[in-house]
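Anyone else keep sequences and structure tokens together like this?

Example one:
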Amino acid sequence: MILQNILNDIEKVDGEVFERLEHVSRRNMFQTFMKKAMKGAAAGAPVVFASMLNKAYAGAEDVADVLNFALTLEYLEAEFYNMGLAASNLLPQGSVARTIYTQIAKHENAHVALLINALGGVKPGGAIAKPTFDLTYKGAFANVLTNYDTYLAVSQALEDTGVRAYKGQAPRLIGVPAVLEVALQIHSVEARHAARVRQLRGYKGWITNEDTSNIPGVGAVYKGDNMITQANLNVASIAGIQTDTASEAFDEPLTKEQVLAIATPFVVKFN
């Protein structure tokens, strides 16, 4: 991808990128880049450009790492829904479930495309390639693409994990408001997915304590979501608020390590 395209992609995500570069204009950005690149070997040009971007985002914690982490989850979700829709007799034509999952699949594929674009394309130092996945979770959900109930259960676990995962990474993006805004926009849609899937299964649209909604082997997805103290206030101490209601009113974040522990069995290899 040429420099013009890279700058276009970055500016779509962070409209203030040139202000971050000591208030330089797009034209000056090109001039500075070319002067520095001409002083060294042509092969060193990407290093020069990377150095300039590092300076632009010096106050942020490894934005690319956060975006690639999110991209891995979005790849998984997109694969899950694309394969589910392609599977014979899993989601019958004209059914409510197929209509819902068709829309969710479009959302997840759009998320993948956006994150790849924001990272400058699939390449070394940019967006990671789509991993090879095992949707059976190493055999724990062997009939996931043939059994409707299993498919919905795994879908719920994926969406509930995704919601908590985005929340856990938000603090790392505070230094880059434009990127944080995009992440929060995706997060809110993932939350809508989670609620809709839970309702398809006949459960509440929100999580009560650490209840796994009768999905065996996914306790880690809901671990720690029974918090009733928020901002040093015991919400259950408020008149009329029961403990279950207090836990349902707030979702807790999952760390990157917690999410990877949950998601890794889906990954056969990174490509």
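And example two:
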Amino acid sequence: MRLKDKVAIITGGARGIGEAIAKLFAKEGAKVMIIDLLDQGIEVADNINKGNGIAEYHKISVTDKTAVENCFASIHKKHGSIDILINNAGITRDRTLEKMSIEEWDAVIEVNLKGVFICTQTAAPYMKANKYGRIVSAASNVGLRGNFGQTNYAATKAGVIAMSKTWTMELGKYGITANAVAPGFTLTDMVAEIPEAHLEAIKASIPLKTAAQPIDIAYGYLYLASDEARFVSGICLTIDGGTAR
């Protein structure tokens, strides 16, 4: 088991890529702490526990600093460490530049950027005290190349990459690595409403001629969270089927 007895906090772990990460990490021996506002997290945790894994669901917002601090303190008190932080929680509010409202801009910045900052700032002291930590945050290939109608989303994902590189410099001497994962188009609930014809066009634009499944992205997180990547820090691992960027 590649994550045996590691305590892993996974934000946005109730569905999609986060759910795939939670299940894979539990299979690899981690004690999985799912952070989400969606009650689907209860079912994900229950299924992991029924499969002889260890999982908990904590219903809090990553943007609520006090709630995050209390939750992480409770996890640390119960399990003795916080070894891995997966900053996966994120939202979209797509609109072209001239039509995007301040509310749509602020909502995405609040979750995708501020939420990542709050969770990492809260987890870092526990990792520093233990001289060990793995921080892996959700970027996107959109953060590398931009995307039509996603000024807010692209800005947050580019910011996540920059923050990860900064944390590498600040936290490396404590045995903590910080990396980002940049998925390409992935078949999650967020894209379920896309018309079939448009979906096929997207797949055709990807060199591998198919879209990612959540598990394809989860394996990248597993590598960066494992001791196999102990000397890997400050990178953005792109998992997008070779999409031009």
